């Protein structure tokens, strides 16, 4: 049964019950009450406790009427209906989207941000109406006069409902315009410290407190200058978070467009200059603190954030300032009571949308003080928390995983912990007693939140956000915080009947590295531009927060120092991205693993970086290549014997020694890589083990192919022989 059919049937049965009060004996009034209970039970409803209980209350009322034969008890059914409706509307305000917003989206799926806020206010009005209507129904039932009861519940109550519905629809344009002006004005004033004492602290710049008056003066002075300049787009980029904040507000509050680069790296800023040649740079303007007259904030500003695209090219995502402020208002509605007057601190950079909203816009709009600069690491966080006071921490999952939770458990001033950027492991979330995780992206802004207080909790959408999924399980988001109103993500999800959902993983090649969203194709393109690199594929091993890289060196590069090459590749990435994006581990291969169709085998590639497990994958038995040299009919390979190799397990306890079979298998392995051998050898001749090989040693392996197809190998370490021998082929070539 759909919602409209259920509502219509409930309405018809309610009118029938009003007539039955006069026509049926008191006992038989239980039958229409049972029919009404069944209708409410099968009608679509939210997961509120009140709505689940309502059919049972109605059925219980029917049983009481049957046995007591009391007409007055039967007259209480409107109270239960109003209680059920109040429960549905109240829960929709808490869990989102609001009940009126759901109805409004049937007519206008692309509901604007101010429309979402207006429907929430209207839902609150209906909540108060159901309280009033239920109280009147209870009063007329208690009075016991059937005619008065029937007049109100069968006629007057519906007149009031109709008047509220049609009156709101008639006055909606004026009410919506009034709400828009009030909301925008309140949000803009909040950004400039409106409603706060001029001498109160708006933020801390290092250890220096910035007052509301000083902050308003600096933003207004720069905004007044920008308003008189011709460029409509301004790049907002500064390592100084306070200057970034004043520049961002000055640009947006003059109705202009702010462009925020991914970071402050020189290569990134050069890319932005080339991509947006028409934009001026806000940080290059010198502004005095002179009073600005004749300037007032405007709401038409937009903000563009840069993020990694799945195609390898960074994307520029634009949001309206009003939408960002609306999201901040939704966050305040959800978590404002918990935060109280806590100061907002964090480690998230301000040029991310997560950092801009949670560390700057939300505290400004809500009237909380905040720390302008992001804290450097966990030690800085602990030092700040131990200084006393109430705090809200805006963090990334990587910090929470590294920072021992026991260090902050005794600090009563930590009011809330927010985490976003990637999923927080359940054991870490439980250790921190359930931080508030926020799920979203630069394209969609905030989508949902959860608290893993007991493990396994699903994601609940932010107010105004609705989610669905296509046939591939890809999440589709309809949100007032998105410019186009609707956005497909790259995440696979499983939806639940209660409106929550579970994330099942990425469907594209976007990875979250230490909370930073990066495009693997973009990073691979940067690395493959190196003259010695033919192919490069980046992977994120299961459970790892950092990337790993598999590199194929060009055939023309006969002499390569792999250690120097890995340093060079890392420097290339750090020139464009934060250092944590660079892979920690590298594997240099003669070719990437592919299947019979020539497609890359991700499973085999990921196995190169998997930790040792049982059974041991073959790739985990390989040594680490440092460099190699090809020429003169031989190959020289320099190796590092890692202590993590599974060969050392049990061989021998207390004094691990590399087994000789490992040296033989490595000779066959690199014969296949560099000399094209098939590894089909019948025996070993002239085998000598001159000295033991220990963990951490560096070996020099020389391979030479003889005329009869045999493989001659020799291992040395620091000029001293370790092992040597000849691998005899199974089918030696015939001499002609």
Describe the overall structure.
The chain is an alpha/beta fold and 736 residues long. The chain has 4 domains: 3-188; 201-422, Rossmann fold; 510-610, GMP Synthetase, Chain A, domain 3 (2-Layer Sandwich); 620-736, Thiol Ester Dehydrase, Chain A (Roll). Helix content is 41%, strand content 23%. The strands form 7 sheets. Strands 23-25-26-28-29-30-27 form a 7-stranded antiparallel β-sheet. Strand 28 and strand 29 (711-717) form a beta hairpin. The longest helix is centred in the N-terminal third of the chain and has 46 residues, at 146-191.
Which features does this protein show?
single chain; alpha/beta; Rossmann fold; GMP Synthetase, Chain A, domain 3; 4 domains; 7-stranded antiparallel beta sheet; 21 helices; disordered C terminus
CATH level 1 name of the largest domain: Alpha Beta
- Provide the helix percentage: 40-55%
Beta-sheet strand percentage?
Answer: 15-25%
Q: Compute the separation of the termini in Å.
A: 87 Å
CATH topology grouping of the largest domain: Rossmann fold
List the total number of helices.
21
Task: Describe the largest sheet.
Answer: 7 strands, antiparallel
Summed up, the domain count is: 4
Number of strands: 30
Mean pLDDT: 78
Overall 3D geometry?
elongated
Q: Which value, in Å, is the CA radius of gyration? A: 34 Å
